Amino acid sequence: MKKWYAEEYNFEIEVTGFLRSDHTENYCRNGEEIGDKYVCTYGCRVNEQGYGICSKMMQLLYGDMQAVRSGGDLTLVGGSEPLAKDYVCPDGCVCFQIYNESDDYRLFYLGQELKSIEQDKLYFPELSHA
User: Fold this and answer.
1) Tens of pLDDT along the chain (130 residues)?
2) Closest listed residue to residue 41, CA positions, set 13, 16, 60
3) Alpha carbon distance 97, 16 (integer Å)
4) Which residues contact 97 (CB under 8 A, 6 or more apart)?
5) Total-model pTM
């Protein structure tokens, strides 16, 4: 692979808990454990042990990651912060949190007005395609 684009956003995805029990054996075929972290930009990354995030979970995350890349505010879709949101996997077993600690704040269109996520931290990268 020859990556040619320098991604503007790094997302950290962390396993924060279990919904059905205190372990994932016989519930999650990916074997997630509390504290497991995945760091990704555009593609799906692997954790420190070399395993990739569940593909079903990535389907849920992808739309919100794209929204953030386009200037979206995750609080408008259930997030706890503009750049953070909690999820439960599609199988109802594992709890995840995704967050982005970027300084890249953008304007987000809300009806008739432009509203700043954080007025004093506006930043528009030169290479932005959003």
Assistant:
1) 787 877 777 889 999 999 888 877 778 888 888 998 888 887 776 677 777 888 889 888 989 988 888 878 888 889 998 889 999 999 888 999 998 876 555 545 555 455 554 454 555 555 555 5
2) 13
3) 7
4) 13, 14, 16, 84, 85, 86, 87
5) 0.72
**Assigned token pair, 16:** 């924060």
Taking CB atoms within 8 Å and a gap of at least 24, the contacts of 112-115 are none
112 Rama sector, left if φ>0, alpha if ψ -120 to 50, beta otherwise: alpha
CA gap 113, 51 in Å, rounded: 44
What is the sign, positive or negative, of the torsion defined by CA atoms of 50, 53, 55, 56? positive
